[in-house]
Model the fold of this input.
Amino acid sequence: MGMIYFDNAATTKIYPEVSKVMYDTMHENFGNPSSVHAAGRSAKAKIESARMTIAKQMGVLPKEIIFTSGGTEGDNTILQSALLHLGIHHFISSPIEHHAVLHTLKHMADQGLIRLDLVKVLPSGSPDMDHLIQLLTMNDEKKMVSLIHVNNEVGTILDLEAVGNLCHQHNALFHTDSVQSIGHFSLNYESLPVDFAVASAHKFHGPKGVGFSYIKKDTGLSGMILGGSQERGMRAGTEAVHNIIGMETAFQISYQRMEADSLYLKDLKSYCLNQLQVALPGTSFNGSSGDIENSTYTIVNARLPMDERKAKLLAFNLDLQGVCCSKGSACQSGSDLGSHVLQTLLTSEQNRAPSLRFSFSPNNTKKEIDKLIDILVDYVKS
Done:
């Protein structure tokens, strides 16, 4: 069967149409967008057209879309600028955020620049709303809340409307890392109480190294990368035109195919959940990943019934058999610390069993899931 790629939450295979448009852009629109001659104006026009495409789909103004290198840069810029330019010194987040958020906030807290409070998280992966209210009302300081929309490890979906309304009721700004949701869910940030959000193209079959941030108008946020007036002064540096156009194309295709793809992937995920439980009785699912209605259709995080000896070599064995999956987020691979998300959500006893994240795209099939099940069953019985 060849390689079975079940790690689409880490990155996705680029659409062929994206590769072509990027190649064409590099050869036909190679001018510097800041140049005033025809080649520069042509490149600039391409960028602004892409900005309008994304803004229209998101229901926001083109000036509210800022092109970046991806989610990590976007998160860092928004959080650090909130401190430096908005004077916010009290941040509220959760212990299961992506490290782009957690490490940034903890770095600022360790320097004594901010107060950081982490909201309690339920076993489902959802924030404890009562505790969030307590944190929002503990003092009169202006605050920023940063909570991930779709958790990248267990797939739990945050109620953006409920959390955002709560934040605004208490004069707090709301930032959400939407890297795992943009391109997979229809989001309209004009009607949602969200002030800041980020996206990465390589999560929806676009190129790596490009993304965008939504920065609501009149928030007062300023850029952190200086040196030029690009991106309305929010992000200096010559724009990677081919990457931006590649992202636009991937974005358009993802939303055109979203309805059909989501139905296909929900069925694929349901099949995977059922087959795992039938073939390996005692299998359970972390966070909300086993709940089709309350988690993303792209992620299954399975805790497998296996002794510790076999568990240590499970991921290695799957790799040898051509199965690409993850023990946690790709950003922490190579670390011996394990998943901070699962350490938060599971008991110490539950954490002794191996957990694997399988994340899907429309390129995956039920035959691939059948092959995965066969490999897992053979390994457990060996």
